[in-house]
Amino acid sequence: MAPSARVLVADDEEDIRLLVTVAVRRAGCAVVAAVADGTAALAATRAERPDLVVLDVSMPGATGLEVCAGLRADPATASTRVLLLSAGASPDDVARGLAAGADAYLPKPFTVAGLVEQVRRLTGAAA
What we know:
By secondary structure, the protein is of the alpha/beta class.
């Protein structure tokens, strides 16, 4: 069996971090770190080299948009897949997320099933 994809979760709300962790595991992936702010997300991504980073847009330290742009600017992390989660669901919010380099954007509130589907799509994990 192929090793499962490695995912880093970053959200400043503990309950959302736990929910995302559950969804990532249901998708058949491993959570390598779950952090509460953007600065920690950037550092953990550089240290852990996950296949996918699930980022909340509104976090202390650095926003998800700033973290995403920072990952894209670093050759060592430029190809890391990024899924942004945000309460902002307008077309402009989505456009800003994709412009920052995100591979996908999922508005909050989201369903666990919807998040599992996105994680599987972005990591190539089997259903």
